[in-house]
Amino acid sequence: MLRCGSPKRDVVLSFGVGTFPLPAQLMVTLMPCLQSSPAVFAAVICFTIHAAFSAPSVNAQNSAPGESHGVSYYRSVRPILQRRCSGCHFAGKREGGLSVVNVADLLTGGEGGPALVAGKPDDSHLVSYVSGEKPEMPLNAEPLKPAEVETLRTWIAQGAEDDTPASLGNPISAENPPVYKSPPVITSIDYSPDGQWIAVSGYHEVLLHQLSGAGETAVRRLVGRSQRIESLSFSPDGKLLAVAGGTPSLFGEVQIWSLADGKLLQSVTMSHDTLFGISFNADSTLVAFGGADNRLRAMEVATGKVVMQMDAHSDWVLGTTFSLKNDHLLSVSRDRSMKLTIVANGQFVDNVTSITPGALKGGLVDVQRHPTAEEVLTAGSDGEPRLYKIFRTQARVIGDDFNLVRAFPALPGRVCDLDFSASGDKFVCGSSTALGGAARIYTTTDAAKTIDLPEIKVPVYAVSFRPDEQQVAVAGFDGIVRLYNASNGQLERSLVSVPVPAVTAQATAESN
Ligand code: HEC
């Protein structure tokens, strides 16, 4: 994937996206850039060429998905199965022995035999399990719509032809991991609580780099269903990794991985679009995350059940964090607001930031709680990090920004990510401009005291403070993670997020 600009994209041009088999092979999605000033708008025009490195572009001539006269598997059947079934039936989690991610897997079937018999819908599990008064599948969820069942039935009756473009036939899985020609844009990174690992977003996967050795890092790959990994976070107890992402316009997904054995504990599908900004509560029992459906949700880690949702935002919810007591959630959005919500019942309490028009100059993309205080740091399109008190101690007066504790000097462009040090004394912040980026370490109590991190020539989308406060990691557009000394800002080491031999050599040379 080649992407310019912010992963919290305002304008995305996508060409030949695998999931959108448009005959013209060109899909242009214009996400309304409602919250940014014209200058920011111009600066964040992003071109996403998904196909560039591992999702090959769809070849219209060869297979012409959907041009056969009947029901197209690729265009009509596959989206239903992806959205409603694949969360429990894919390579990583074959409930009943069944994977539904391609036609070959359906023909192989599960413990009860093939899921379909071409030409015979009445003999096909794929139809019988979703039909009738009380359909068995999807398990514990709304039944398929009658029209969707009819689509499955007709496709099978017509011979269950597989019109998947040849180049997309082999879905990505742990056995068939992504192959990269160049490192993908990094949208999220996080140090493990023991500082031994750093988790880095890839395409369809998260890569865990072990940092203890001096030379090459050992890498573990956590390959899942979501094309896009938007956000990841280690649990405070260090046992789990939570991931929010999805496949645009198809589904959003939360993944919970067990780090001891690399097992996917939860893959929970929700919404029709990607999820963002995942965070854990203190005892690692809940995760909170936002979505392109403007919703804030909290999910129980052990069961995968969504236990809270809040719909007061009017644009994408990009960042979340729990209050110090863990009884409240803070969420930030492209709608320019930071909202406070009660975890137990999803009740919206307050706008923490000013609601006066013009007080905030652009959407907010990230929020982090101070490790030891009921205060939060946020930033976004106007580049200016700000520290706020979570709880209002004085009634709102129109025009006030009462909860603001301190504003810090702005970074160039828009801030994409920030992270507190373990004590809360410092924080690291990264930003992107049209062509470049910047990262800086700030001192929380003294806005004037900053360290600019050198050698950043590309937009920065992800930063993380190592728990021992000795190092920060900065990553973004070029797919390289740069590790800096947190006291003096010197570049200590660079590593490439994914296995790409030529680039690895270059990065090693750069950091020497
Ligand atoms: C929340 C998880 C979940 C979802 C979502 C789900 N399934 Fe299942 N499915 C299961 C489990 C668990 C089993 C095995 C136990 C059983 O048969 O009830 C199963 C079994 C099956 C089987 C039988 C496999 C065999 O060979 O025994 C079929 C067919 C099936 N599912 C189809 C579907 C379809 C089609 C959808 C989407 C419309 C779907 N499932 C969605 C959990 C799920």
Structure in words:
The protein has helices spanning 38-43, 60-63, 73-84, 103-108, 125-128, 146-157, 501-511, and strands at 2-3, 11-15, 26-29, 45-49, 89-90, 93-94, 189-191, 197-201, 203-210, 219-234, 240-247, 251-258, 263-270, 275-280, 286-291, 296-300, 306-310, 317-322, 328-333, 338-342, 348-351, 364-369, 375-380, 386-389, 404-407, 414-420, 426-432, 437-443, 446-452, 460-465, 471-476, 480-485, 491-496. The protein is mainly beta. The protein folds into 3 domains: 2-50, no CATH class; 74-163, no CATH class; 189-511, Methylamine Dehydrogenase, Chain H (7 Propeller). The strands form 8 sheets. Strands 7-8-9-10-11-12-13 form a 7-stranded antiparallel sheet. A 4-stranded mixed sheet has the order 1-4-2-3. Strands 14-15-16-17 form a 4-stranded antiparallel sheet, with no helix packed on it. The protein starts with a strand and ends with a helix. Bound molecules: heme C. Heme C is lined by residues 84-85, 87-89, 95-98, 109-112, 115, 125-126, 129-130, 136-141, 144. Heme C binds at residues 84-85, 87-89, 95-98, 109-112, 115, 125-126, 129-130, 136-141, 144.
